[in-house]
Specification:
- The chain is α+β, with helices and mostly antiparallel strands.
- It has one domain: Nuclear Transport Factor 2, Chain: A (Roll).
- 37% of the residues lie in helices and 41% in strands.
- The chain is built from four helices and six strands; from the N terminus they run ααββαββββα.
- The chain has a six-stranded mixed sheet.
- Strand 1 and strand 2 form a beta hairpin.
- Helix 3 packs across helix 4.
- The longest helix has 15 residues.
- This is Ketosteroid isomerase-like protein.
């Protein structure tokens, strides 16, 4: 696994919001599983990741995959009583900083539960 992906994984697993955000470029682009438009910038990303730490229960990574174009961290968690399977797709720049983070989750019922629980935290 790439160093940036390994450091991101370690920060998320440790619940270290500051470390996770520090691995990202100032202009990082975050693509949410439940919102059409991407969020841009570290300051937009910080409250989203903070809400994720609150909403996801039992969050843990189960696998990691790396290639020339990016890195994928597969995770499992719960949202309320819904089991969630998902991936964090990381794209890095030449310096190893995260320039794009895309999160995908399944099933649809879990994505809806995620949206419903996160919306009040981010409004």
């Amino acid at each position: 696994m790439n160093d940036a992906a390994a450091r991101f994984r370690a920060a998320i697993e440790a619940g270290d919001l500051d470390a996770a955000v520090a691995l990202c470029r100032d202009d990082v682009e975050f693509r949410s599983p439940v919102v059409h438009r991407p969020y841009r910038g570290r300051e937009a990303l910080r409250p989203i990741l903070g809400a994720v730490f609150t909403v996801f229960g039992g969050f843990h990574y189960v696998a990691g995959y790396s290639g020339d174009d990016g890195h994928v961290l597969e995770f499992a968690a719960t949202v309320g009583e819904r089991e969630v399977q998902g991936v964090d797709i990381l794209r890095t720049d030449e310096e190893g900083r995260i320039r794009e983070l895309t999160v995908l989750v399944r099933p649809l019922s879990a994505a809806v539960a995620l949206r419903d629980r996160m919306a009040p935290m981010l409004s």
